[in-house]
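Researcher: Next entry in the queue.
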Amino acid sequence: MDSNNTSGQRDKVVLAYSGGLDTSVAIHWLQDKYNVDVIAIAINVGQPPSKDDIVARALRNGAIKSDFIDVTDEFVSDYIWPSLKANALYQDIYPLSTAIARPLIAKKLVEVANAEGAKYIAHGCTAKGNDQVRFDVGIVSQNPDLSIIAPMREWVTSREEEIEYARKHGIEIIVKKESPYSRDENLWGASCECGILEDPWAEPPADVWEHTVDPAAAPDTPTYIEIDFEQGVPVALDGKRMDGVALIRALDKLAGENGIGRIDHVEDRLVGIKSRETYECPAAVTLITAHRALEAMTLTRDTIEFKRGIEQKYCQLVYDGLWFGGLREPIQAFIDETQKFVTGTIRMKLYKGSATVVGRKSPCSLYDSGLSTYTDDDSFNHESAVGFIYVWGLPGRTSAKARAEKK
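Model: Structure for this entry, 407 residues:
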């Protein structure tokens, strides 16, 4: 990568900045290594707020510009709800909480880079994870002229060495109590890895879980809730209409208090490594369960079965960082088309780690009690069953007869 500039004006790099140790020291490292001006951009996708002003600290540490961009509303409307419509569970387990935020972050970084005339985008991903792929591919899929710098891939260093680097160069950092875990968090869920979790035989210790009550310690009385959907999108909780961010936060609290959303999963990373991760996704797990139940009531069997296969492809594309790859978009269009009649209310029982559907109703329901009942209100034509079964079984009957004659 050529960082030489003969014009006298330094090139710019947009840094995906969190205010943590890695990205704080990266500001100086990028200036020193590549002779560039650093624009530090923090993007809010619902992570916990920082205890200090990370924008001001980035400027004090040498960034020429810094900003904190709140995209939580866009995150819900354009990324979380589309993934919910797809019932997105990678390997049928993980709700893509971390993965689904990455294309939005990449999109915002590219927008800033384009506006600032930056030549580079930098991020703090390591060489072993999925996020480096999601960022790198997401960025060049929007602007192929941008180059990527990943300090943690190039500068393989320890936490202690980074702290010493900060001391040596007068970099202001917030040194938190060292944790054995690596965490990531946004509005759709939290992930945790490393430490004792690297032993797949070991039960996750209590300090892994930060957002959910131990199911054994959850209330002994069930909590019943009702979720209203319109065209596949949740719009109300217990009859109260609210925006997506508020609904997810409210449901996170309710479901988390009942021990719902804990996931312990050995997953297949894109880079070929099996990784043991834990996730806490109370709202995501509850909403996907409810959404699938409403689809079962409002979609035909053929649509549901075909959509399930499409959902798996959708999950793979998102997990693998191909949000902007050209295939996700038409798949999303198909999924959106299936949601036109996914409108109704799901009643759920939250109890000691389980979110169970206990009731459903829809103005678009394909459930006909007159056809399904065994009471005197039965409207099904029983005589039609004989002819249906004869025609349905005709291929098998014909095959058996032909083979019997050749024995």
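Model: The longest strand covers residues 37-44.
Researcher: Noted, moving on.
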